[in-house]
Design a protein that fits this description.
61% of the residues lie in helices and 4% in strands. The chain is built from 33 helices and five strands. A five-stranded antiparallel sheet has the order 1-2-3-4-5. The chain is globular and about 105 Å long. The two termini are 55 Å apart. The N terminus and C terminus are likely disordered.
Length: 669
Amino acid sequence: LHGSSSSSRMQGDAAAGGSGDVEAELPTQEMQNLVIEQLQNSFNMGRIKEILKHYDSHFDQWTLAVAMDHVQKLPVDQRRASDPDTKEVKQRLSALYMHLLPEMDPCRSVKLLQTLAQLGVCMHEPGKNQEGFTAVNRHMSQVSEVLLKMDNDQDVINMLWALAKHSHHRELAVDEDLFRYMAQYLVTKVPSLQFRMLSKTAQAYALVGINEWSLLDSICAAAFAKLQSGEFDPAPTINLLDALSKLRMENDSFLAIASLKLKANVAALTPSNLATVAKALAEMRYDDETMWRRLMEQATRRMSILNPSQVVSFTWALSKRGIADVPMHASLAGRSQAILDKFNASELASLVYLLGKQGLEPKSLMPSLVERATALMGSMSLRNVSNLVRGFQLLDYGAATLTDQQQPEGGEPDPAAQLYTMAAQRAKEWLKDPEGRLVLSLQGTSEEYLDEEMRRVERSKDEHTADIIERVHYKSGNVVETRLYHVSKKHFKSQNLSDIALALADRGAADPELFSYIAVRAKETMRSFTLMSMVDLVCGFAQAGYYDKETFDELERQFGATFSEMGPAYLADTMWAFATLKHPLNSDLLKAVMDSSWSRWHRMCSDQQVLARLMWALYTLNADALQPDHAVFTEFQRLLEEQEGQTEVADAGSGSPEQAGSTPSGQSS
């Protein structure tokens, strides 16, 4: 655990100061005082690292507390996570904590665990983070019994919060039984807790995704009473609001009074506070027009200091609630352009998708978005590619292929064509793997790849048990090793496949090789497709003119099980796609579609384009020959005669992929 032998530690070390032989003769207490003195006179991570290396055998829990406190007080720029000295200091602090934990005072163990969490220290050595964290959970379960006997609710809450923070958004598994057991105790203590401790408790449960309804409901009631009595503090109020939104828990009374208090004090909120409030209120479907207006006004005033994450948060909140605030969107677009070079791949893809979903056309921003997207394409996950191309398609940006007459002067490649071609290529890199991974290296039974979150994963096979061993390297620094009996996980979502197919087909970038990968992956995961995913996928194939019989047979089976749940637009678009690619639907399904259409005929007739598309598909698939006297045909003929609009069907599509008519009416959500 210490990383060095006692003999090497006691050798003279000029960097740490003093002679090892002289120090070895000092009594324990004096040696610890010497260590504390040296720590207090250290002003950088390099010096602290040397002290931890040289004196690690002389640390007790008090000396360790002094070291952690000193590290915590260093300026932020001196404890950057990427700094090698900082990494080693954190590893040594973690090792010392684990070594001293069995004999540590219960309250001290909680305090130091909380400090480690605040410093972002990973528990135990890489590859055994879960092992170390499990040991900490086990020890804290024992500590909790002592804390309960002491009736120490403050340390119980600090313990839960520290464990939750160390889980790093559930990268590591916490002892859920401990959290549920402590919830029963904390319910009785809620009325006497300070506001900040109420908020901290909710945060702890939100971080590990455990919704203890009775505890959280009592927290909301206590928070409501405090706010009503005039006890208002922005930070814990916002943190509690954020925790409730993450747990999908809505408490109307607390939400109303918290919003009222925040509305009155919105000018005092930081940009980070504003972004958090906007996301939380949007997630909880809160629609107070005055509140949203004041939030947007304050965000506009602070626009020059928003970072990419905050820009995306505000854009997401506006999209989620369907708020068409043109000045705010213009300000967000302007800020995005100013800091576009700071956007990472995920933030950029999300921004483009949200702008497209809102139906905005930031023409001045578009060239910069395309340039940045092209530069970041090599670092995009499949989900990023999906959001990016779907967003640009919704923004109606460019087409991937241009005629000779449309090519820019000088033979320069068209930016749109280049973007969509690169996106298709990047998607192929992910989808050519059966699991949807980006494989980096393959040697025998060992391989290294990136998963859907762009995390590096090492996979190997245990020669003795034949188990599959995976080591996942998280961005937090955690390296978690797991054993699998077999691999069944897919590193993509069905909507990713649908969005890529639909967007690239619509933009004229339907790469045949990519579509063959999409077809195979869709066939393998068809049961996971939602109604919208299936409709988007089949329409994407139809627009691209790509047909794979096995995939369409699977799509037909899925359609047969779900068509009764479809609205008129989805039903018409799916039938249009089958008809465009001349896929022969079985007669029983065709009859069922006709019966379903007739049962809601008044809805079908409410949109002439939808009706024309459906009827064109039925005629193209020869459904009229199957049952010529069906009510849908006789009634449709009557409508045509009344309106003298027989060109309606002809205009819906000619039946060939190249001339199949206009874009599907229900292309997307």
